[in-house]
Amino acid sequence: MIANVVFGLPVDKVFSYSVPAGSQIKIGCRIKAPFRNSVRVGYVVGFSEKNKVDFDIKSITEILDGEPFLSGEILELTRWMSSYYYLSWGEAIEAALPGALRKGRMTSNPRQGYFFEKDKYFVRPSELTEHQKKSLSQINQNSGFNVFMLYGVTGSGKTEVYIRAIERVLAGGGSAAMLVPEIALTPQTVSRFISCLGDEISVFHSRLTEAQRFQEWLKLKEGINKVCIGTRSSIFAPLKNLKLIVIDEEHDSSYKQQDSPRYHARDVALKRAQICRCPVILGSATPSLESFYKAVSKKYYLLELPDRVEKKSMPDVGVVDLTTVKRRSSRSMVFSPALESELKDVLGRHMQAILFLNRRGFSTFVYCSKCGYVSKCPGCNVALTYHIKTKTLLCHYCSHKELVPEACPNCRGGYLNMRGIGTQRVESELHKIFPNSVRTARLDSDVLKKRGELERIIEAFKNKDIDVLIGTQIVAKGHDFPDVELVGVILADLSLNIIDFRADENTFSMLTQVAGRSGRGENRGKVIVQTYNPDHFAIQTSLNHDYKSFYAQEIEKRKQLGFPPFNDLIKMEFRHKDEKKVKQAAQRVKDKIASVSKGAYQVLGPAPHPVRKKNNVYRWNIIIKVKNIEQASRMLYNIIGYNKRVDGVNIVVDVNPRED
Q: What is the pTM (predicted TM-score) of this model?
């Protein structure tokens, strides 16, 4: 027999190798085989009869597995991914496997296991609300592949619906996958699920070591554990008899992988559920427009939880128009009188607050008031951000770091000013208001680089060892802190300024989600939103927790512009150190698309990337609006192949990109 083998390389081809005499091998097994001038790990995807191969072929060097590591279901899923996300079948397979397996290992023993404790604060409701009962009933009545859009306001009890749906699956002998968008949510979600379902749960997220991840993967493959909880890669977990997939906060941009392979876990989950003939629950207080459009169009079942559990009130929301606030000091640049007053009231009653600003660092940029010089990254040409703890200027794109110059490098005189604010600045100014009495912690990507720091901060905040939690979008995600009575949004406009057609949607979602962290305990919460655009419809509708009004306005705008959900988008990003070459290659590809498709596709660009230069590499984009992604991907393959190069210019293809 001849084994058909694919490799994790950008090659659209299945290779043939002879199977050593007397060897046992199955589809889905890993092998080692000679490829060009090396021996590589490959994946068996089928067999051919020897007499049908009319050329000399090489033999497999080593068969790594007695039993397949790749099920037929995962092979079918990755084959679909290869055609949908413009990558080879082998690259898609490697996205679905732990690193240890990709490297050809057989075992991987972690130095220590990964354990979660039960959530001692979590109390399950003795009785469901009527809306929860109705939602569960619909989920239970519709077996097979169905998609349920569980739209519920923050604090409405979506988690309890997930748990009960999973309990029913486990009682019937099935397994379930539960996806959360960020590692920030994983500890809380896992500890709650352990409290309800026991500890036969495997966890996947980027904080696990490679050995820990492989150990959890094996527990699922061997059927020891029946529930997988984790971030986007957990959609590939080797669950047996999969009967339910839950995607919490389905709107979240973290489900979209930003490097190769650039898949969206929600869309992969829908395809896997279709293959397994099992239901999917998409849960959110602020559904993505694509998902809600399908629910409104009756392609999905729409389930609603319009009220908070135990009839708790939504928080009061106050808006501060920053254009009317007089600046008397550096402190008043961060805290309006209204926010400062509310902070003093809440902390005076020994309750807690969250301050949200989606920008890390101390100040946004350093500039000279005499000549206008701004400190920029030499490789990316973007302003460097000042970090007070290390007293350095840092590029958040390439991590270039330098000391703050003592004098202006341009005019050698003048005083260098700090402008803009980040989470470090907020923390610093807060300590000026409460010099000795406030205990603070920051939750942003700078802090989370240290292993275990996330869990430590979350636990300390729950235990009320921290009074004020200051953070970026991580604090906006589904945390449940009952003693938080105030949420302060330092500057609501930042996400409105992102060059992305989803900017308004992102702003509405982020503001609504972070506001939902307030008032989840006994007392009604308060939210103070500081903004320069108080009349913007995304801000106005979020203040009123009015998703449907936001959706009605935004979907009309998308329809007029032909953006998702009315068309899909494929972004082609051209990269080279010579900007002239980049622009020429982009124009050449655009012309070729127009010629091949005979004008069937609308192509936007070429235009410079929002961050035109990164790490000394120039970037230009073209955007293609398409109705059929797989058809368009095949067309692109005929133009640029899987090597994705034209005239020496590298090309990155991204299906339905996110510019967050």
A: 0.90
